[in-house]
Amino acid sequence: MRIVLVGPPGAGKGTQAAFLAKNLSIPHISTGDLFRANISQQTDLGKLAKSYMDAGNLVPDEVTIAMAKDRMEQPDAQGGFLLDGFPRNAQQAVALDEMLTAEGMKLDAVLDLEVPEDEVVKRIAGRRVCRNDSAHVFHVSYQPAEQEGVCDICGGELYQRDDDSEDTVRKRLEVYHTQTEPIIDYYKAQGLVVTISALGKVDEVTARAMQVLGKADDQ
Q1: pLDDT means per 10 residues in the chain (219 residues)?
Q2: Which of 22, 47, 106, 161 is catalytic?
Q3: Is 218 helix (H, G, I), strand (E, B) or coil?
Q4: Domain span at residue 193?
């Protein structure tokens, strides 16, 4: 299957992408991983992307599209893939369609993870991270530390990252609504969108996704 995964920040896209890709035996292709791999391997595209990032500028769509195209042409992606974070806007969605059409391929489904905005803010703004080890993550509501502000694992101070503040989360949601949400309408016009609730336990969300993707694959 060839799937695009969309949803607002805090919808759990990265977590669900990993589970779904494993269950479907297809590679999980995320924009973040593409950038990190190209930059660490010092590819021409990685050097180009880094030059924009170092200057504090957004990486142009053409560079992101070229990275995605290169990754989708790798042998392990010939039988399908799950795209996470790409396409991010309408221009990238059109470019993806053109790429696939040129190869005689098409998308099977666009999985839209739906989460109420207040829940997104609660999920992200409630995160607390240990200053000693960023892998130690707690949540004021869903996974509180035994002692407020203190890491259960190492005793380090727990703090809220700037990226997790409510103001920042709401700004990220605005960007999502403006730039990324329009691709849902673009794909709805093609009959590709399947929407599921991303509320509940991780395995419950995965089960819902597998069920709707199975139906999409039967169409």
Answers
A1: 95 93 95 92 94 89 94 94 94 95 94 95 95 94 95 96 93 92 96 95 94 74
A2: 161
A3: helix
A4: 2-218
